[in-house]
Amino acid sequence: MRLWARCRGGMGGLALLPEAGGINQQPAWLINAFAVLDAAERRFDELDKQEQG
Asked: Which of 12, 20, 29, 40 would you label with 48, given CA atoms 20 to 30 Å apart?
């Protein structure tokens, strides 16, 4: 999770990549793990909005 947090940009997208090269040079497991964490964050944000609204 720390790696995911450090690689994120200001608007939630990837700003830094842990391995040299572009997105296609990253390990597939890493990109999949980041996608799982992104989805979890979106779901938590949705639940938070429902509680507030």
From this structure: 29
Q: Is the pLDDT of residue 11 over 80?
A: no
Task: Say what the pLDDT of residue 14 is.
Answer: 75
What are the angstrom distances between the C-alpha of 24 and each of 37, 40, 52?
Answer: 19, 23, 39
Query: Distance of CA 53 to CAs 8, 47, 49, 50, Å?
Result: 27, 10, 6, 5
Place of tokens 């779901």: 43
Which letter, b or e, does each residue of 1-33 get, where b requires 16 or more Cβ atoms within 10 Å of its Cβ? eeebeebbeeeeeeeeeeeeeeeeebeeeeeee
pLDDT reported for residue 12:
64
